[in-house]
Amino acid sequence: MSGFTRFSVLSPRSRRFYEARFEEPQPHFLESCFLCKKPLGCNKDIFMYRGDTPFCSEECRQEQIDTDEAKEKKWNLTSSVKALRKKQQRESTSPNKTQDYPFRTSTIAAAS
Question: Which parts of this chain are annotated as the region Disordered (predicted)?
Fold first, then answer.
C-alpha cells in the first residue's frame, strides 16, 4: 500500500471498529454540543449524558433527556399495546372449555 497508513479505530459512539482510510475525518465528539452544535471547550463546562454525549449547558442536556424519555415512553407504550394484543389474540384463538365440550341434555339408554 503506497502512501496509506492502515489502522483501525474504535468509534466512541457506535462501539464498532472501522477502517479509518475509508471514512471521512470525523470531528472529535467533544468539539460541539450534540443538540445545538455550539462549539465546546475554551475552559467551559461540558455537560455529559449517557457516557459520551456532550452538551454546552444543562438546558441542552435536559432537552435531550426529555426527548429520550418521551421516545422511551412511546416505545414502552407501543410494546405494551403489542403484548396486550398478542395476549388477547391467544385468548380468543385458544380453545375455551365451554366451547370445546358442549353439554347435551338427553337421555341415553343402553341394553345388554
Answer: 83-112
CA distance linking residue 78 with residue 68, whole number of Å: 15
End-to-end CA distance of the chain: 99
Cell of 43: 475552559
Nearby residues of 44 by Cβ (< 8 Å), 6 or more positions away? 56
- Give the up-direction half-sphere exposure of residue 66: CA atoms within 13 A in the CB hemisphere: 7
Beta bridge partners of 54: 48
Instruction: Round to whole Å and give the CA distance between 44 and 57.
Output: 10
Q: What is the CA radius of gyration of the chain?
A: 31
